[in-house]
Write a structure and sequence with these properties.
alpha/beta, Ubiquitin-like (UB roll), Rossmann fold, 3 domains, 6-stranded mixed sheet, 3-stranded mixed sheet, 12 strands, about 40% helix
């Protein structure tokens, strides 16, 4: 015999039961959707937070690296400074080239090199200024040879004339009018004279500097014939020759043209003792005889 499947009841009660089931299923689905939405929102918030925190972490690592590198460089710099101040890196050997009129011991004492300063702390500009305080030293070049040697090249002044100081002692004079040192009375150089009545102790670096300037520029054609280079307080220069003839130079301008005029007069004119030739204007020479009396 075949069994029949029981038939579901049909009626108002059955319809209500089916609707409740569908409502329950819809409620569960809605809850699942809400949970999924909450999870998605939470995941999105976590992702956003991670995006914000990740650069901060990278920045923190970068800052840490920078600090470590800075510390390493500081340690290396301090270590290098300490090492360069050890005795091996102090001045131990000094070689002078071109030093003739000043003694090595005086130069070392005046510059402090005898105290063996550090090579790294040695200021060559200060050293040059100290060396140029010596009368005969006009120019200096300092060369460092690491780890502990110096080469100092000296350019000494050349005397261009002689002059008597306030104690009537004859001194060598350079082109800048500086007093170089004692000169013998038979020195084969022109003598400078400052003719101002209000003479200072040594005028040839200031009011009388034009005399040294002209003496330094005298041409070989007649330099040996110049006995005296005199200058007054206006700066006007006069050459007194061994003949004796005088040439008025005036201010030390157009010196080349004035010297050419003097050489021409010496070569082609007959001058008597005491004659004075004014070459202040080189193209208009004026010759006068000796002053009366």
């Amino acid at each position: 015999m075949s069994r029949r499947k029981p038939q579901r009841a049909v009626g108002p009660g059955a319809t209500l039961s089916n609707s409740s089931a569908r409502a329950a299923r819809g409620s569960r689905s809605a809850r699942r959707q809400r949970r999924s939405a909450r999870k998605a929102a939470k995941s999105e918030r976590v992702a956003r937070a991670a995006k914000v925190k990740r650069p901060r972490r990278r920045f923190g690592r970068l800052a840490t690296g920078v600090v470590l590198v800075g510390l390493m460089l500081t340690v290396l710099a301090l270590g290098g400074q300490w090492m360069l101040r050890q005795s091996y890196f102090r001045v131990q050997h000094v070689t002078f080239v071109g030093l003739h009129h000043e003694t090595v011991s005086q130069v070392l004492a005046a510059t402090g090199l005898e105290l063996h300063p550090t090579m790294i702390g040695l200021d060559t500009a200060t050293l040059t200024r100290k060396l140029e305080q010596f009368a005969w030293i006009e120019g200096v070049r300092v060369i460092k040879h690491w780890p502990n040697s110096l080469e100092i090249r000296i350019h000494e002044s050349a005397p261009v004339a002689v002059a008597f100081d306030s104690h009537h002692v004859l001194q060598y004079v350079d082109r800048r009018g500086r007093e170089l040192g004692h000169a013998p009375l038979n020195a084969n150089l022109p003598t400078l004279q400052y003719t101002s009545p209000a003479r200072t102790s040594w005028p040839y670096e200031r009011a009388g500097r034009n005399a040294a300037l002209v003496a330094s520029a005298l041409p070989p054609a007649f330099a040996a014939q110049v006995s005296v280079v005199s200058v007054n307080w206006h700066g006007s220069v006069e050459l007194k020759m061994t003949t004796p003839v005088s040439f008025i130079i005036g201010p030390p301008t157009q010196l080349h043209a004035k010297f050419v005029a003097i050489a021409s007069v010496i070569a082609h004119s007959t001058l008597g003792p005491g004659d004075v030739v004014d070459v202040t204007v080189p193209s208009e020479l004026a010759v006068s005889g000796p002053p009366p009396g």
